[in-house]
Amino acid sequence: MSDHRSDMVLGEEAGDVRRFWGRLGLPGLIDVHTHFMPERVLHKVWDYFDANGPLIGGLEWPITYREEEAERTALLREFGVRAFTAMLYPHKPGMAEWLNGWAADFARRTPDCLHTATLYPEPGVETYVRGAVEAGARVFKAHVQVGAYDPADERLQQAWGVLAEARIPVVMHCGSGPAPGKYTGPEPIARVLARHPKLRLIVAHMGMPEYEEFLDLAERYDQVRLDTTMAFTDFTEGFMPFPRQALPRLAALGDRILLGSDFPNIPYPYLHQLHALERLGFGQEWLRAVCHDNATCLFGL
Ligand SMILES: [Zn+2]
């Protein structure tokens, strides 16, 4: 079985990606939602996608960039992605701290990766979140669907407080796509924001399929942002289309939308995410903000 795309195909795609941001007059892209994690964990994730498990809605989901870690980082650099993240997340207690150790090391040996950390509702969470912040973490990832926890869980309150105080963004998979979880959807996260209105929440995947409810939260809280991960692509539009009536709100929130891709775990080429944004028709200024400038502001790059 050959999942690897040829070097020639990847090289051509890199040229197309570079032309995309070059046309916009940008120095490159910033992608706030890319997955790097210990190889053993990543391979388990890939196995799950291969098996069309229930958390991905039982969908056919071929991984486009099933490469070794070094090749994946090299490819992002060839695409001209100037900064990216290592989105990793635990599905059970006792795992987050270990993942954070790995991510700190990954950030050390990968200077263009924004040092990423994660958390889970468990004893000691505040301590290791504080530790990660002190160690230089610049972004957190929380996965409400895979972790199957309530983001408003009492055990997380101090940790959210630490992150709000430190102004460190947290990318959270809190929407109910591609498959709902017990605590996904806008309601639990609205309770978190009610207590931590300054939390720099980045709603992953535009909150799909509850796009409009998460736009409500972004309009209500000025520190709420959304990442574009997989949104607007042919793949996602096929089963969780972005509602047309919400397009003007999306255009207006251009300073709060951040490019995210889900690289490498995507069932289409990276370039397609960029084209999916371009064809929204909001123009170059919107694209420049979303693909680069909003993230440079947020992360002080
Ligand atoms: Zn993701």
From TrEMBL:
Residues 30-301 form the Amidohydrolase-related domain. It comes from the Bacteria. CDD domains: metallo-dependent_hydrolases. The keyword Lyase applies. Signal peptide: none annotated. Pfam families: Amidohydro_2. One of its GO terms (biological process) is secondary metabolic process. GO terms for molecular function: carboxy-lyase activity; hydrolase activity. Keywords: Hydrolase, Lyase. One of its GO terms (cellular component) is cytoplasm. InterPro entries: ACMSD (IPR032465), Amidohydro-rel (IPR006680), Metal_Hydrolase (IPR032466). This is Amidohydrolase.
